[in-house]
Design brief:
Length: 659
Amino acid sequence: MASKGDIRAAIDNSRLTTRLSIIGGITSLILLVLTLVLGAVKGELVGADVFSLAVIPYSLALLFSISALIYGMLGTSAAIENEEKMLLAGRASTNALNVEEDVRFTAGRSFENYRRFAPYVLSVLAALLVAGLLGYFFRHWAGRPADATPIGVDVATKSALFSAILMLVSVFAGAFFVGQSRGPAFRWLRPVGAWLVTGFAVMFVSTVAAIFVRNNIPAADTYAARVIFWLYAVLGLEFITNFVIEFYRPRTMRETRPIFESRLLALFTEPGGVMRNIAAALDYQFGFKVSGTWLYSFMERSFFPLVIIWAVILWGFTMIHEVGPSEVGVKERLGKVVETDLEPGIYWTLPWPFGEIRQFSCTDIHQVVIGELHDEKEEEAPEDDGHGHGPAPKAKKTALSPVVLWTAAHGGEDNNFIVAVPPTGKESSGRNSEASISFIRMVIPIDYQIRRDGVMNYGYKNLDPEKTLTRIGEQAATEYLASSSMMEVMSTDRLGAEAAMKKRIQELADMHELGIRIVAVTILDAHPPVEKVAPAYQNVIGAMEERETMIWKAKAYAAKTLPEAESKALQITSDAESYRYTTKTVAEAESGRFNTQLITYRAMPSMFRLRSYLDFLEKDAKDIRKFVIASGLSSEVYELNFEQKERLDLTDADITSVK
């Protein structure tokens, strides 16, 4: 039985656990409320996705603070009960039939039941809490317009400030509870500290993301929020995994770690090094002292030196560079060019970032586009209404058809070029005169290659060669189109316009020492402006196409009707000729046959009649049954076979083959 001093220490530790859990719960509740108010209710103050995700660790810290509070209260009652039992055991006389002692002392059993079953319930509650909050965030992000920004540049400074304040509170509170949980009596406070430290990490990421947003990188908050979202999902899955594994893993007689503790967070939040945390996790998982094996001892001594050696080796690989085929290399040392025109091969430099070799491909074709179509990513973010509602949701965009009409808006507002209007022969002057210009929208891709002798100009004499080439292309296109006709550029003279602009762009590129060779200039998507000109222009083009359609329909009808008429006339003529020839030939044949029969009849009339009669019986009456009877006999016996019917009716028909 435990001594009186041990019982008093257990009472003091349980009471201290209760007080610390109350402090942890209040701290977690304050942090949770501030996160909800600043991140959701008053979104115009912070409104960052990463900041709002801190709700999850603070909620879990509050949950585990409540569980530690109950643990401390029950532990205090159980320790006081043990003290009372010790006092009763020291009395001189006891009544063997007194059952009040068993009825009165129930706090210990309640405490043991709580220690036994509460971790399972807490694991399920924590998993459900994480799943519910992640589901809410997922639905919220899915319902938000794709181009909406969760945090604006104007509130990024306030977001960074609030995140930094909550970060400091979280790290101090988390470090205190993690340090306090070194003792076995305060083990249930360790999840509180671990999740407060997790809240510190989230707020740190929120602060960094807000700084990036403040420097016009709004996607930093979104990407960081997505990463943290999936990390939460992994930690939530760990609760379920631990809950299931707990039924099958081997156990020791004395278990000190609750199953709702996160092993992943313990690697970075528990006291001691990472290797010792891994060893403790392995010891707990397998039920025996894994950290006492020779393999673990070797890994503990050699792991970090090996990591450092591997890092140094990987860093040393940055000294090796390869210049590929058809590439030209330029060696740099401490930011200065020390060697140029490197041929394909392997080269050595100082490790990064002290040495580098830049490769320039002289065969790859690069492209810049003038008047490029509108990009949704570059669309200006709509302003907030000032009430925390964020930008108004936009209508969903339907998928573009493969065929885009001129009258349908499908380009940006900055791809208009001025073109000349041909003179109409009418003089106009005064205030009603109009300038002889029009506008055309075009997309002009420019394909180019880096010249081998222009690598230094391309890489070092121009800060942004592609942007410079884009400006040159716009200048050349404006110069050419200002003296050209819209119809010519859109139809007959497109190839000439491409050749002229290619020549002019090459001249300007050489003038600016870009070190490139223009491969091709292509005119795409040339059409009038959509707003006012395109509908009228579309009507004119439609009328022209209808006229051409009617002409070609008439030609097609003529090409179809004339051959049909000629064919029908030829058919009628051929039929008449055939009928004439057949009639004449048959008549001549019948006449010749009759003359021959007449001569035969006159020569032997009786024989001719007999022969004709027999021919008739043989040919014309061949399907009729005939009986030949001699006329000169006085008597004759007839034998008739009635086995076969002479006449058939419908009942004798074979219908098995009829389908």
